[in-house]
Amino acid sequence: MDPELAAAGALLRERGLLAASPMTAPIAEARASSDRVSAFLGKGIAPLRDERTLTLPGGLRARLYRPDGVVAPPLLVYAHGGSFAVGSLDGWDHMLRELVRASGVAALHIDYRMMPEHRFPVAHDDMLAGFRWAAAHAAALGVDGARLALGGDSAGANLALGAALTLRDAGEVQPRALLLHYGAYSTDTSSASWQRFGQNAAGLSIASAEWLWANYLTAPEQREDWRAAPLLAPMAGLPPCLLTIGELDPLLDQSLELAAKLNAAGVRWRLHRYAGLNHGFIRYARLVGAVRRCLTETATALAEELHHG
Which distant-in-sequence residues (6+ apart) come within 8 Å of 14 by Cβ? Predict the structure, then answer.
């Protein structure tokens, strides 16, 4: 493991900032503990001048981040990770502020509904509704509706890819790029990276993944529904995909398989692999140089696709 990431983990433990698993803890405590960890990781990251929390039709909440001094920037519609069960708008503030500052791209973070209160396909539908709303209201948001992207991390990357596939199949407004951090693209936990890195009960494990799918889905046959497992879908016609993955992530093989499928379908893609990083690293930029590098490289690639692509 990257020594700075290991030190960050030790520091969190010293501060008593341990994220409770929704698999074993009451959901309210799991969410609160995730937010406490995020607040510490984001300490000192100043807000942008223009940040707004919005209520979309149907009561769906979202938070808009606009880059300082950029007129009509492109827009990234984003979903956080957290096993479809934890995570919040506040918890990803610092990461999205840094991404927006570095890229010059605005972000709209969708507060999709989570399990156990809301199960598949509610989160997928919320992500889709958020993107459609942003596309229809780009002028009111002060962003360029011709330069939209979809993105997310972990469960959020699953939602971003699933939404892009749905938009493609419906012939609707298409994102210009996808930004996918260590996504959960399949319900299968039998791959080599799962067997090698998914045995640690304290991290993303086979046991926690099986719990996730058992509680997110409402019927066993939904494990084969590409809206839940987008790796099952054909990839032709997708926009350029920017992928990141840690070399110690149980989901490594899923990112590699997605890259291979994109390549076979003629879709442009980039895959950034980070030595020493495990699952869920994207919020650790304040403490870990490799994560800062990931955000910089991600921001540069996103800017290239949306500003100049």
Answer: none
pLDDT of residue 32: 96
Task: Please tell me the distance from the alpha carbon of residue 306 to that of residue 152, in angstroms, as a whole number.
Answer: 16
Q: What is the pLDDT of residues 94-146, one digit of tens each?
A: 999 999 999 999 999 999 999 999 999 999 999 999 999 999 999 999 999 99
- 303 token code pair: 């800017």
Residues 6+ apart with CB under 8 A from 62: 53, 54, 56, 89, 108, 109, 110, 111, 130
CATH of the domain at 182: 3.40.50.1820
In the annotation, is 279 catalytic?
yes
First to last CA, the chain: 35
- Marked catalytic residue, from 2, 111, 126, 249: 249
From the list 80, 109, 124, 279, the catalytic residue is 279
The residues pairing with 161 across neighbouring beta strands, listed in sequence order, are none
Q: How many structural domains compose the chain?
A: 1
Q: Give the three-class secondary structure for 22.
A: coil
Answer yes or no: 154 catalytic: yes
| Domain that residue 229 falls in | 3-308
H runs (alpha helix) in the chain: 3-14, 27-41, 93-103, 122-136, 138-141, 155-170, 192-197, 206-216, 252-264, 289-303
Q: Which of 154, 193, 205, 208 is the catalytic position?
A: 154
